[in-house]
Amino acid sequence: MHKDSAPSPKKRTGRQSGSCQSSRHWRKLFCALTAIAALPMTTVAQTVDGDLSVHRSRHTGLATFVTARDGGRISLPTRTRSPAVRPADFLHSYGPLFGVTDPANELAVSRSDTDALGHRHTIYQQLHNGIEVFSGMLKVHQDSNTEVYAANGDFYPISNKLNTTPTLSAEEAADAAIQHAEQGEPEVEQTRLVIVDPGWYGDVAIGEHLAYYVVLTDWSVPLHDAFFVDAHTGDVLDRWGLSHSAKYRVVYDGQGTTYLPGVLERWEGQPPRLWYEVNSAYDFMGDTYDLLYRGFGRDSIDDAGLHLVATVNSQALTCPNAEWRTGALQSVYCPGLTVDDVVGHELGHGLTTFTSNLIYQNQSGQLNESYSDIFGEAVDLFNGDASEPGLPAGTSWPKDSGYQDNGTDTPNSRRFTCSGYDSSVRWLIGEDWVVIRDMWDPTCKGHPDRANSPLQTCSAADWGGVHSGSGIPNHAFAMMTDGKSFNGYLVNGIGLIKSLAVWYRAMTTYLTPSSDFTDAYIALNQAASDLIGTYANDPRTGLPYPSTFTAEDAAEVDKALLAVEMNTDGLCGATNLFFDPDPPEQCSNRTTVYTSDFENGPNGWYSFVTIGNPPTPSPWQWTTDLPAFREGFAWFCSDPDIGDCGSQDESAVHSLYSPVIALPPAAADLRLIFAHYVATETGWDGGNLRVSTDGGGWELVPTSTFRHNPYNALLSTASHGNTNPLAGQPAFTGVGGEWGISLVDLSALAAGAQTIQLRFDFGKDGCTGLDGWYVDDVELYYCLNCPDGPISWLAPLDGVIDARQPRDATTAELQGIDLIVTQAPMGADPSCWALCETDSEEAPNTIEGVTEYALGVYSIQLARGLTPGAVTKITYQGNTASATGSFTSLPADSNADGLSNTSDILSLIDCCLNEVCTPPYDKYSCDIDRSDVVNTADILRLIDLLNGAGAFLRGWNLESPYDGGECP
Q1: Angle at which helices 496-505 and 551-563 pack, to 10 degrees?
Q2: What's the CA gap between 833 and 872, in Å, rounded?
Q3: Could you say which of 2, 25, 349, 467 is catalytic?
Q4: Is 224 labeled as catalytic in the residue annotation?
Q5: Catalytic annotation on 180?
Q6: Catalytic residue among 106, 132, 277, 346
Q7: Taking the CB of the first residue and of the last residue of the chain, which one, N or C, has fewer CB atoms within 10 A?
Q8: What are the phi and psi torsion angles at 526 (to 5°)?
């Protein structure tokens, strides 16, 4: 499925599937550029489950590629084993890794064949209630001994809530597609019922839908497009072209007609004709057939002898151009386009159709286009005897009698820079016509050379950048063939024959319609691993190439793929993954100020149009219709595809207000965390966050305050035609592709405030939209600076706790009671200390403040004196540990004259132990030997022996009977 002509500039209906694929994007063609800055580079997710190596989808978490951990066979439980292992045995044992729980009802065999290595590959189509799940496919791979060594593919979770009984008929769905096409008089080529979510192949995830897959054809327009039409509503969920082309747009006078297939000129075995392009198409289609047959034993592009049909000198397409037309099973060429790499390119699209059938959108479309470039350039290099850099040499390419060798194959020196155009035509696509791509250095033609290059803009006008983004895998192929130093990797070339064998095996064995770069990275490496110890066929002779494929060759394949970052998500398609999927770092010891997950209602949140008067208001709504498999409720502001940016101007800001939230005095280090999903028209529509403190004005929360997942771009400015009231502001815009968590530090904005209110603003311009902004799980909290450390509530004989009560209210030194604690962590937040008093009839006592006198020495001030006879506990909460001390105050009348605090008591103890007491301590009787006092508990018991005189505290941090009582 391929679309090389720009999408029709018509409005789309229903929820859209691409961030830049609607009408007004002709004036917004740069929209995809705004979402590519500062994207995280994430690698292929891989885990080890027992003896298995499991690669998982970043979207579903389910397996996408499974091999044995040691690279050998995958062990199966003996109870499922038959004498010869069956693919079903593997699925019954390991199907749950992919999400398969009932293989008999969820999968159906679509094809099973054996390759040249003797390996058998069984392909299963995913079904749900008997209906095809589009691009849901699993492949089980067995060696010549029937042992399973790998399995791969995509299996998608489908909700049982999905209504799989269509409301519309196939005819009604086809009519809806025809109305949406709005051009020509299309015929319905095919219609079939499927389940699909465009998010599965790189567009916006909208949830699975029951839909009709409709293909319309009218070559007079021309039109050859595929549609997904919702089987219940008739909305068009997605649309793309099926014409595969090597387009390089140049306007010139065309010749010929639009009639297809045209007048028969030459067929197999006939001698050359006078018309040059008839002969060149004939010759180069023969070269492509020979490359497949001698190199891989493949009988034509379908491996079943399909006739290779071409129409040359045609005006049935927008010229200059060339196309592969899947419906007609033929290639079509404008005048002058029948050059060898272009002919090989178009037949390469046909090969893809009959093998992996890569969808012609986003990264899968970029792989599709790259495969055609690779096969086109392989034909170009082989038929010019230029497979190795340098002068034409080695085994010659066999040519039929009358063959017209019109290719420009020299100079063929090794490439180094863009200046190679003057010294070498190696790795140039279309050099016999006009150079349209450069596989050796894609940047020479303004195309990306690695997955995270800023040049990877994924233009909607090119169906997600299928032609420009093809430069990334093209670069990898050229690099692994000739060798190159790039992006920190030194790749040693393995030659064209071996490289082509790896890519062909990956295409025919492992890739599926929705494969992206990370899938291709795994598939190509697996293909290289399969080939170790084998001899690839030489397409020039059909005989085994004398150099065996080695483990060292496989390592070079991996390095070339790593160099172009195909192991990462990259910047591609309608979905630009701008959220960091890792959770934010949060303080472990925190106090929640406010939280709402919206599961029990709006909880005081409300929506309002704060700017603008749109004719179609779309306020924030409390909803359970959440994308990307999220369950529960959240708030959602839609970004509908409406308006015309003129008479119907939808420009507005819709705001979601939180309740007014009271802030405690301790909330100095205030944080906000929330979950959200973004799918907006990139660069034009988007949202940001504002706060108001103590009822004051609304202030934009700046990007600098975000600690995790900040705004990902600036919205286009008014000077660029953006009528969004938030134009030019930082915002979340584009298609994040998944839920993310943002963390904001509001400490500076809320400093000294008693209340705070949050406002999520979603701004839209005058027309065009996508899906919207979802917000969930909002929490305000403040962090406690509570470092861990040793706690000593009472160290021996050093006055570590000083609990005293003022003798009268006029004592300025003390208000309430003052506790001194030593050997505590340094720099602890006052909120790290908590107090609880049991057995008290008075109102709860509180900590008024905490003062750090010295390193680890704290004075804890209480609101009032201790309740006589009550048990009081003070708890210190460290970040990972806590400590609690408790004590009991004796009745106030037990205080003897002259003994008012712990210092006095300790002085008394000292005089008793030394048997030398001075006033006022000499009036107390002491009858105790120093040897009886060995620890703190003895000291406290000694206090009790002092006739009850002056013992204000007892039982500090002691076991029963001193600890008494429990705090709630």
Answers
A1: 80
A2: 13
A3: 467
A4: no
A5: no
A6: 346
A7: C
A8: -65, -40
